[in-house]
Amino acid sequence: MMITAVAAVGATAGAWLVAPFVAMARRGTLDDQARAAARAEADRAVAVRRARRREAIVAAASDLPEVSVPAQRSSGSAQVLRVS
């Protein structure tokens, strides 16, 4: 009974000691997480700038006057080129 209790306490203490290292291996250290968050924020800022620029281009293009395209000729008078 005593050996079982000691083994249980030892296993609990081992898990308590190992848990922070497992968490760091999975998610990285706090510094790694802070760098990743800063990088993601910078990427978001770049994406917002690109989206605003695209939006301005589309708005400017929609303000342009209509462009008329001449009608196409009918295909009835088209010549067929035969290769022999």
Task: Record keyword descriptors for this entry.
single chain, 84 residues, mainly alpha, 70% helix
Characterization of this structure:
This protein has a domain at 29-63. The model has no long low-confidence stretch (mean pLDDT 84). With 84 residues, the protein is mainly alpha-helical. It has helices at 2-27, 30-62. The protein starts with a helix and ends in a 22-residue tail after the last helix.
Quick take:
The chain is mainly α and 84 residues long.
SSE map:
Layout: H1 2-27, H2 30-62
- Helix fraction by DSSP (H/I, runs of at least 4): over 70%
Count of alpha and pi helical runs = 2
Label the structural class: mainly alpha
Unreliable sequence segments: none
What's the shape? rod-shaped
Q: How far apart lie the N and C ends?
A: 102 Å
The number of strands is: 0
The biggest sheet, with number of strands, parallel, antiparallel or mixed sense and barrel status, is: none
**Over the alpha carbons, how many angstroms does the gyration radius reach?**
35 Å
Q: Percent of residues in beta strands?
A: under 5%
SSE string, helices as H and strands as E:
HH
State mean pLDDT (0 to 100 scale).
84
